[in-house]
Design a protein that fits this description.
By secondary structure, the protein is of the alpha+beta class. About 20% of the residues lie in helices and about 30% in strands. The chain contains two helices and nine strands.
């Protein structure tokens, strides 16, 4: 026959086990959250970016200028590539980039974006014998370890030149949801990450 003392001891053990289980569950959840939120470290530059840039076929559409690209995701995390030809030109030695009708391909590593690119800034430094450039589009493919492959196309259809409309050496395309990038403007103002090439002033 069970005494009240035996029952109390059993209840105490059950309560202790229940509390121990509860604490163990909390610790497991906390450890899991820490792993999920971990960023940085060796994976900082493990994403691969491929850019396909089409120059228009219009007369004098090609350029000798240096071209830079900045991209961002919907959360404003961004990267900036100064002089994309030096960073990742794949067309071979002696090839002349950004000539009329060209589809030029560039690829390289950089810090991973946390969301697919939806914002792009394309900038010419205006140098060279012929500075004006007509760009049809820029297509960006991104991938990295343990992440999917994202593809974004930005229609430009604009001159980057000082002697023809719209008389600007840059083009910006924003396909992000309106709230996330409100007021971003130029990525230089929000700390874009540069990929190893000195910035063009």
């Amino acid at each position: 026959m069970l005494t009240s003392r035996t029952m109390a001891t059993g209840a105490t053990k059950s309560a202790a086990l229940l509390i121990l289980f509860f604490i163990s569950s909390l610790l497991a959840c906390a450890a899991s959250d820490l792993r999920l939120s971990k960023v940085g470290g060796k994976d900082d530059e493990n994403c691969v970016y491929t850019f396909y840039i089409r120059t228009g076929t219009v007369w004098k559409g090609g350029t000798d200028s240096k071209i830079s690209v900045a991209i961002a995701g919907s959360d404003s995390v961004s990267i900036e590539i100064t002089n994309i030809e030096d960073w990742g030109g794949l067309m071979g030695e002696g090839y002349n980039y950004f000539e009329r009708g060209n589809l030029d391909i560039f690829a390289g590593r950089g810090p991973c974006l946390s969301s697919p690119p939806c914002w792009l800034n394309l900038t010419s430094d205006g140098s060279g014998e012929h500075h004006g450039w007509y760009c049809n589009y820029v297509e960006v493919t991104t991938t990295g370890p343990h992440s999917g492959c994202f593809q974004s196309q930005f229609t430009i259809e604009q001159w980057l030149a000082t002697d023809t409309s719209p008389y600007k050496l840059y083009a910006t395309r924003d396909y992000c949801p309106p709230v996330e990038l409100a007021g971003v403007g130029n990525l230089r103002d929000v700390g874009a990450v540069q990929l190893g090439i000195p910035q063009i002033e």
